[in-house]
Design a protein that fits this description.
α2 packs across α3, α6 packs across α7 and α6 packs antiparallel against α8. The chain is elongated, with a radius of gyration of 24 Å. The protein is an all-alpha fold.
């Protein structure tokens, strides 16, 4: 599977990811990926499928048995990868918003115990609830709330890994 080892390294390097990152994404050890790339170990069929799915290639391409993909195919695959990443960002964004909504609701109900409990089921419910909360906040509380929201968003965004530096030889 000499062609496979060369093709795997080409695909990994073209995505600017380390062997460790690839290993984590497909559920194998870094040393396994390293041995695949050196031709010292052959992956299982299940691992080959995971690799093909991850790189958006068919098994023949992954095994080096077909012609390299065209620029159009590479573009489509890049868009698929970007779309996948955007979906992950959207999920993270939704998780952060849900935490913020829950904290605002809990804080508001704690400060206003006579207020009927509010269950947020859709965007309109949240909008009405949020407007009620903002009416009861002082300017200082609004400022603190804004700061907390910004810190929460920065914290959530920092969990997204920055791409590795391709010029760093330790990533291979």
């Amino acid at each position: 599977m000499k062609n496979f080892s060369i093709r795997l390294k080409e695909l990994r390097c073209s995505r600017n990811i380390t062997q460790n990152e690839l290993a984590q994404r497909i559920g194998v050890s870094k040393s396994s990926v390293n041995m695949y790339e050196r031709g010292e170990r052959e992956p299982s069929l299940a691992t080959l499928h995971l690799l093909a799915d991850y790189f958006f290639v068919n098994l023949d391409d992954l095994l080096g048995r077909s012609a390299p993909q065209t620029d159009a195919e590479a573009t489509v695959q890049s868009y698929r990868a970007i779309f996948s990443h955007l979906q992950a960002v959207q999920q993270l964004h939704n998780q952060v918003l849900c935490r913020i909504f829950a904290a605002v609701q809990q804080d508001f109900l704690h400060k206003n115990p006579l207020q009927d409990p509010c269950t947020i089921q859709n965007a309109e419910d949240f909008s009405a609830f949020f407007q009620a909360v903002m009416r009861h906040m002082t300017e200082a509380e609004r400022h603190d709330f804004h700061q907390n929201v910004m810190q929460g968003m920065e914290s959530a965004c920092s969990t997204l890994a920055a791409p590795p530096d391709p010029s760093d030889d330790t990533n291979t």
